[in-house]
Specification:
Elements lengths: L13 H7 L2 H4 L3 H17 L5 H19 L12 H13 L12 H37 L4 E6 L2 E7 H26 L1 E2 L15 H8 L3 E2 L3 H6 L2 H27 L7 E2 L18 H24 L13 H25 L1 E2 L1 H8 L6 H10 L4 H18 L8 H5 L14 H7 L8 H15 L1
Helix pairs in contact: 3-4, 3-6, 3-8, 4-5, 6-7, 6-12, 6-18, 7-10, 7-18, 10-11, 10-12, 11-12, 14-15
The structure holds arginine.
Arginine binds next to helix 6.
Amino acid sequence: MANIRSRVKKPADKSVVTYTVSLPYDQRLYKHDIAGSIAHANMLAKQGIISDQDAESITWGLASIREEIDKGKLAFKPELEDIHMVIEARLIEKIGEIGGKLHTARSRNDQISLDMRLYLKDAINELVTRLKAFQLAIIDLAEANKDVVMPGYTHLQAAQPVLLAHHFLAYFEMILRDTARLWDCLKRTDIMPLGSGAVAGVGYKIDREFLARELGFSQISQNSLDAVSDRDFILEFEATASICMMHLSRLAEEMVIWSSAEFGFIEIDGAYATSSSIMPQKKNPDVAELARGKTGRVYGNLMALLTTMKALPLTYNRDMQEDKQGLFDIVDILSSTLEVFTGMLKTMKIKNENISRSVKLGYILATDLADYLVKKGEPFRSAHEIVARLVNYAEEKGKSFEQLKTNEYKQFSPLFDKDVSSITIKSSLAARDITGGTAPNQVTKALASARKSIT
Ligand code: ARG
């Protein structure tokens, strides 16, 4: 095979081969690389740049190389640097010097941009499917536990009663935005860069629109320098994935807290829990902990690529090869986290008794008592103060609001009356009858529209 190292006159030093090789990870792109090459060969023939016959043997060769790689039959030689060179070398081995015509009007610089875009488009589509499955699990769990009331927390202190379904639907909303962000990333990933060549565009009458159509892109890039040096589409995806992992890590944290003996709100199914090698009583939420931990790795990958790209002069620089491991790592982490979380939610047991017990702690109806006074004419600020003093009093006496007598209430405001007993968890929920609120009829509506929005 013709040697691309003629200019440097000698083979690369062993240490250099090891240092520069991207094959161990970019082999993951082989299907996309071959798809791009087949479209390119067909386009070259259509434009009369190579003969139909040559294109035929090239595309035949490429298809058979794809099969070889599928079956693990192609040896990857590290001296060949990257997946592009491995495939091209094998093509020439298979069909002879004609294979050398494939790289006409193309550079590895536009080729790698193409491969990464094709790969990411597929990855985004798969992730969106996973996000949907996860959202469905959220809806199912929420619906199956529609009547469960839990403390809504601020500062991790019980604040106001909310429906458990309302709490879970908060995650549904986050994932809805994550999905929209992914679709938005897709728009800027869906741009076909071939024809940009190494930097200046190519000197052949190629048909870029044809390539875009063949490869399923809706647009072609408009500036060759930008096209070979742009990695924003990857950064944007990684930022989106980071936000999504941040959301999952918050749920993860709640799963960890809620599954503790102290909370006991949920029981993680045995299949999604782990045990301790020393403490026989332990059933650990490692899946949730690892999701929390892997979130750090996802952010790290985003920061790594931002840093790699920072201040790089135009256009392509080899630094950019470092975009791959982080991207693949993020796709794998997000995808597997969604998979295990979907399973964990589907199998998790909600322990309603413990949850209801905790709703009764901590004067969770204090806001409702203040609202009660407000409705009787007390300005909210002073109502707030009255109830705060009432809470101090009840706490001192070791009593709940329920256990206080009407005359004890009256010591704090003459506006308190017998009907103060009508303030209950149920009335508190029902009062929040506003779009986005936790009133049962609102949550029922939200559940229905959540289900509708993803089916
Ligand atoms: N392996 C390279 C990368 O990932 C492909 C492009 C190589 N281009 C080059 N001029 N060496 O960035």
